[in-house]
Design a protein that fits this description.
2 copies of one chain form a homodimer.
Chain A lengths: L2 E8 L7 H17 L4 E3 L17 H16 L5 E9 L12 E9 L2 E7 L25 E3 L2 E7 L9 H7 L4 E6 L7 H16 L2 E6 L1 E4 L2 E4 L3 E3 L5 E4 L6 E8 L11 E4 L20 H19 L5 E4 L4 H14 L4 E5 L7 H14 L2 E4 L3 H15 L6 H22 L2 E4 L3 H6 L12 E2 L6 H14 L5 H5 L19 H13 L4 H6 L4 H13 L1 H5 L29
Parallel strand pairs in A: 1-2, 2-3, 6-15, 7-8, 8-9, 16-17, 16-19, 17-18, 19-20
Antiparallel strand pairs in A: 1-14, 3-4, 4-5, 6-7, 9-12, 10-11, 12-13
Chain lengths: 568, 568
């Protein structure tokens, strides 16, 4: 039986690091020559990193990417390397002159670019803006001949629709579909992808190799988990999630189609002969909490590393959010690069300092206590000319949070670490967070994690090693900004709040739909109002890791000025 | 000669205020009946407000908009009203189920919707994301018969390309083109539009009426300036910029085309007879500084009003930025709704308090002095356990800015006003601004105004009435965060910096291109680096009014994590 040795380089590439990406691609090509691969797959837009966003509007960026492709092509030998890059395209431009580009895959071998494919289906929803930059490909149904075997090449979205270019390529005689990706993670997406890909292979009765990017980029994490399927739809190989992996699989090819359309010749080098090697053992998908936790570790770790920070600063309140944030940071960067600071006031419970200290000790991170009562008092004094005689209210509560924000930022400015904001998705949704206070920071690792889910992650992490003190997990949530305060003074309990938020924010359900599903009308209406009126806070929030189907940020773009109230 | 009485309602509508917009539309229809108009034009997406962004993903939002259109149609009488709304469309949806909508114009008369047009050209560049929501229209070449005269209806972008739907409509016999818009302002755009529209009318030899929205919506200001042209391309009428206007013009129609394609009948009500009335006198376009200043007043005023704030708080530093911000606020809202606060430290010049007080007195706004030396000292004391023995640096400088940010936010929390951030585009570009310090606030009115341009605005404003003290205009720019500090300690002079920024940020020029145009290579390279590495600060900045072709915000979408350095 014919087979093709398909190698994949599931790499963690960097947006804008064109020289660095080029060198990593060239290294992978040398490895693929060593293992005698027929084909090497690299991620979508591997040369530029993904997503490059408006860097694509800079001519020098596009030119540098094309020069890197030339360099890559010049170093190619026997292996046919399929690598994502930005191509210039002749398509119609809008009146601003954009969209003259294509999201492209080059087929390079023997020292030259032998073929170029332009992505046809451009995602322009959710976090994606590909219509802003790219013009869709044409002639996407054609196939390429590698060692006499016709193959189909496509990019990411092209394979998501049942009748996209890969289906046409299979009809034209492709014996294997090679699909390169930069497919961002959300919880459970791996299973959806695997099912979709197996269906595509089986429906077309061709082999299929799917190669994905890995690593964090601002709000996105790419989870890797590249996969290879036989023409039956059977999974041959699955790469691990969230880590780099070089792999190769001898993929059995279905019999050639007698009347197949002619394929553009890329390489006449015959395919390997002899019996195929058995595929390496597939990596098992992570269990759900492990997967989400690893996504957070990857997103934070890459944000910190790729932006050149040495360390992170975390304000430890004694609560679960900051404890989990510090734990994720220690797992992502090592404890020696995490600095925990607790800043108690007269309203802090004695537990908040002791529990934070206990956490820091268990994690092995630096820990300092910087009491802020004096600063708070001096603020009240400074404000006395205008505040005298008025009741304490959220103004004074927020002041405490902002003092803490100013102190962590001072540590950042003085010692160079990046401050991590500790807020979660529930708080950010309803605005139960202080702008420039607990929202201060360069990255908000829990931004897309609901409060109830955060406990699941903490318990899962503690089963590996018990780093988060039970006292922190067990105490009722409190901002501790006034005596005896608890979150439930202002909000419904989180196990009521979070399911409503999930429906309203992530699923775009109406209030009426949520109520019809059995939720309390008054609470649902009030939650929806809180979400709507706090858009201004979210607009100034730090980025964080997307782990759900709809995260705050580029994924959800609402006007701040908005009089629509979904409560009919 | 045949003529058509075309009325326009250049209204300031609100995003999401579907009931309110509906009522304003119905009022305009009653007025149009009174003046015996044949046609009434309302803005693009008048029912929903523009741009509704991801509200379009909520089914209840789309339904409420359709119900409002029904209500509008039921109230229609003899006039044919052309009104923008969101229609459901059968087009292909992406896998997320979106894009089943159309950006539509309804033709309503005699109690019913008589025709619907779907926008064909969907802008998806700059601030626009229309491909995210809408599927393009088809059959856009058809015409509609109103009183026997064929007319062409189109929406905004449709008319920007020379060969778009309006040109087809003219070829099919349209005697007048009716184009409804939500076209956002940038400096000088009015002239571009007028020239483009005159060219379209003359090229097709048909009359043309262009109706634009007015008012502020988050980062955008719509400048109105609706226009009507004869078939010769001659301007018949120009509505004023930035204000609401109801107008009507008796527009002479070119002779009917003998072999014109049949038009869909909308109304058989004959057109007015008798001699046409002369058009009202056209408004003169504002001179450049007046136009920009009015855009800022409109953007700020509408943001504050539409979000329901009673007053604004401005930290007055004694510098030009805060002085101009307070002046614009006083002009937008009235002095009684502006609260100026100055927060001196030991590093503040005596001038900064006196000059601020002088400004406040001239503007007639409330003014308070809240010294912050005590707060600063208490912060240093709180930080002493970790800062002891280290040199003062930007950590201490930023602390002062953050104390001021915390105080203005405390005033906001206590009394309900919105804090205005006072930074300008030059500072925000190079990161010469403190996150959570001078960047704190809900709106940043000067965000898209370069420092050098800001002086032009101040001098222009002072020619109307001298509200900004000369001492403020004449002093060298300083953050006053350490003794004797001046901006030029850290930055090139603004008259060197701003032209480089304009080329790098607004025109996407490369460093090499800027240097080739005669700018200093070392300075240009350093400026480009400062712009690139401060993306993270801009991501957390407040929104502000777009006045240039490329503003920070939705208009310019760069990754934070970005290793590309454009300095080859």
């Amino acid at each position: 039986m014919d087979f093709m040795r398909v190698a994949g380089a599931q790499l963690n590439l960097e947006v804008g690091n064109i020289d660095g990406n080029r060198d990593r691609i060239v290294d992978a090509m040398a490895w693929a020559e060593d293992v005698q691969a027929d084909v090497l797959m690299l991620p979508e837009l591997a040369v530029t990193g993904y997503p490059p966003e408006d860097l694509l509007l800079r001519e020098t960026f596009v030119s540098a990417n094309l020069a890197a492709l030339e360099h890559i092509a010049a170093r190619s030998e026997d292996v046919v390397t399929i690598v994502g890059f930005v191509d210039r395209a002749g398509g119609a431009a809008d009146d601003a002159g954009h969209r003259r580009l294509a999201n492209a895959a080059a087929l390079v071998t023997g020292g030259a670019v032998k073929g170029v494919y332009h992505k046809a289906l451009l995602p322009n929803y959710g976090v994606f803006d590909e219509d802003r930059y790219f013009t869709p490909g044409t002639r996407c149904e054609r196939t390429w001949s590698i060692g006499g075997a016709p193959v189909g090449v496509s990019v990411c979205e092209d394979i998501w629709l049942p009748d996209g270019p890969p289906a046409d390529q299979a009809r034209n005689g492709a014996r294997i579909l090679l699909n390169i990706n930069a497919s961002p993670y959300h919880r459970g997406k791996g299973g959806e992808r695997e099912e979709m890909l197996a269906t595509r292979a089986a429906a077309s009765r061709v082999a299929l190799a799917y190669l994905n990017l890995v690593g964090g980029q601002d709000e996105l994490v790419f989870d890797g988990e590249s996969m290879v399927f036989a023409a039956s739809g059977k999974l041959l190989y699955r790469a691990p999630q969230f880590v780099e992996q070089l792999f190769w699989v001898d993929v059995p090819l279905p019999p050639p189609e007698p009347g197949a359309a002619p394929a553009a010749i890329v390489s006449t080098q015959p395919l390997l002969e002899g019996p195929p090697e058995p595929p390496p053992p597939p990596a098992e998908p992570l269990e759900e909490e492990a997967e989400v936790y690893t996504a957070l570790v990857t997103g934070l770790g890459d944000y910190v590393r790729k932006n050149g920070f040495r360390e992170v600063v975390v304000a430890l309140s004694g609560g679960i959010d900051s404890a989990l944030t510090a734990t994720i940071a220690a797992d992502a960067l090592g404890p020696e690069r995490v600095w925990g600071v607790t800043m108690p006031t007269r309203y802090s419970s004695s537990g908040s300092v002791d529990d934070s200290q206990d956490l820091a000790h268990r994690l092995g991170i630096r820990f300092d206590v910087l009491p802020i009562d004096g600063v708070f008092a001096s603020f009240l004094e400074a404000l006395d000319p205008v505040f005298a005689g008025l009741e304490h209210d959220t103004a004074e509560e927020n002041l405490q949070a902002r003092i803490r924000g100013a102190i962590t930022m001072a540590l950042s400015n003085k010692f160079g670490g990046i401050v991590l904001a500790t807020g979660n998705k529930s708080e950010l949704a309803v605005g139960y967070a202080t702008l420039y206070g607990d929202m201060a920071g360069g990255y908000a690792v829990l931004k897309d994690v609901f409060k109830t889910y955060l406990y699941r992650l903490a318990l899962w992490r503690n089963r590996r090693s018990e780093v988060i003190p039970t006292a922190i997990i067990d105490k009722p949530p409190s901002a501790e900004l006034r005596p005896g305060q608890q979150d439930t003074d202002s909000l419904p309990p989180y196990d009521v709040l979070d399911p409503i938020l999930e429906r309203y924010v992530e699923w775009d359900w109406s209030v009426a739909q949520i109520v019809a599903a059995g939720f309390d009308p008054a609470i649902t209406r009030e939650v929806a109002r809180m979400v709507d009126r706090n858009e201004y806070k979210r607009r100034q929030a730090a980025p964080g890791v997307k782990i759900t189907t709809k995260a705050f940020g580029k994924d959800r773009r609402l006007p701040i000025t908005n009089r629509f109230r979904d409560d009919r």
